[in-house]
Amino acid sequence: MANSNGNKTPFSVASQIGGPTAIFFVMLVLWQVIVIVLKVPQAILPTPLVIIETMAKHWELLMIHSWPTLSECLMGFGLAVVVGMGLGISLAFFPKFHNSVYPLIVAFQVVPKVALAPLFIVWFGLGTLSRVLLAFVIAFFPMVVNTYAGILSTDPLMVRMAHSFSANRWTVFCKIEFPNALPYIFSGLKIGITFAVIGIIVAEFVTAQKGLGYLIVFAEGNIDTPLLMAAITVLSIIGVALYAAIVALEKLVVTWDVGQDLH
């Protein structure tokens, strides 16, 4: 339910949060009960309570490995935003550039990114750079596509009207096209941040000596399933928090009714 200004009421917000939260806790209870009733070994599937106990016991270790994952994810994502938006704007501004470059971008996107991890090690070594770049190549495509689509979705009548009032190309972009593209751009941001998290974990599986991806591999090698699940839980919390931060930023920036649900 929304009020007359189009803003969601506290009741509607609570209902949106309450439903998924209730389902989540029901799933946790079912998980706990099923594992206990079926006597599933802890090495195969620990209960949620065991995972929580493991997180409490190893919280310092989890925090130590969370920081490299978070910082490198944000670096790769930031690079994807800058390059992706720049390419998307260029594709929209220059048709010849679009015709020449866009097919190459699509072709690169279909390459399995996991296969690039060993190649990045050869090119950039085992350090931070290779992991950041892998997160970048996974996350940048949604930014390109959504920025380009957002600019192209601008009403041509508005553009012609602006030109009739002697607005130059830069003014049209800043005042009309870019604001119109913002909902699309934020959709790309929300997709891109989840891809960046995936990219960092894939890279840490292959190259890292620290980070949650490394901790997951370490725990798997020691058949420490509770620690493995605890690391996955922390990683999920980081991913949800990053996504929620972008949603909150979108609510601050996009204050008008976009006329359609782009989420």
Offer a concise description of the structure.
With 263 residues, the protein is mainly α. The chain contains ten helices and no strands.
Please tell me about this protein's structure:
This protein has 263 residues and is mainly alpha-helical. The protein has two domains: 1-40; 47-253, Orthogonal Bundle (MetI-like fold), CATH 1.10.3720. The chain has helices spanning 10-38, 48-57, 59-93, 95-109, 116-124, 128-152, 156-164, 169-206, 212-221, 225-253. Helix 6 (128-152) packs antiparallel against helix 8 and helix 8 runs parallel beside helix 9. The chain starts with 9 loop residues before the first helix and ends in a 10-residue tail after the last helix.
Portion in helices? over 70%
Rg estimate, integer Å:
22 Å
Number of DSSP helical runs: 10
Principal-axis shape: globular
List keywords for this structure.
2 domains, single chain, mainly alpha, 263 residues, MetI-like fold, disordered C terminus
Walk me through the topology.
Layout (H helix, E strand, L loop, with lengths): L9 H29 L9 H10 L1 H35 L1 H15 L6 H9 L3 H25 L3 H9 L4 H38 L5 H10 L3 H29 L10
Helix pairs in contact: 2-10, 3-4, 3-6, 3-8, 3-9, 5-6, 6-8, 7-8, 8-9, 8-10, 9-10
